[in-house]
Amino acid sequence: MTIYVDADACPVKAEIERVGTRHRVRVVFVSNGGIRPSVNQLVETVFVAEGPDEADKWIAERAGPGDVVVTGDIPLAAKCVEAGAQVLKPDGEALNARNVGNILATRDLMTDLRAADPFRQGGGRGFTKADRSRFLDALELAVRRSAR
Questions:
Q1: Model pLDDT for residues 45-98, shown as the tens digit of each residue
Q2: Do 52 and 36 meet the contact criterion of CB atoms below 8 Å apart?
């Protein structure tokens, strides 16, 4: 089992390292750069080439059954779910075969709406303590499930 992390904008890296260490699970942070490597022997930092989706491609090529992937990138999540990995968003939402298709379709629709109306404003809500707590609970559950 490995926990793969789309690390460039991940707000829960410390929590992932803590859970990985507690369960003695390998953690791989994948990034284009800009993150500091951990001294923890269970944590590996992989720097991929600059460019769109390079970290996503790296993770998608490796994640599979028994692995946990942490990402907010829905296309990457869909690929990892298809490969058999458990996928969590940083707010603790689990993405799986039942819901990832709808979430991907909604994402695509919103992208089209924003492109059609360049004056459309808005963004996501802020990351909260409740999101962090929900993520920790979800990651604990995912790691235990994968260990079985």
A1: 999 998 888 999 999 999 999 999 999 888 999 999 999 999 999 999 999 988
A2: no
Half-sphere exposure of 134 (CA within 13 A, CB side): 12
How many domains does the chain contain in total?
A: 1
Phi, psi of 134 (to 5 degrees): -60, -40
Q: pTM for the full model? A: 0.85
- Tokens for 23, please give them: 């369960």
Q: What CATH number is attached to the domain comprising 21?
A: 3.40.50
Question: Which residue(s) pair with 6 in the sheet?
Answer: 30
Q: Which amino acid is at 135?
A: F
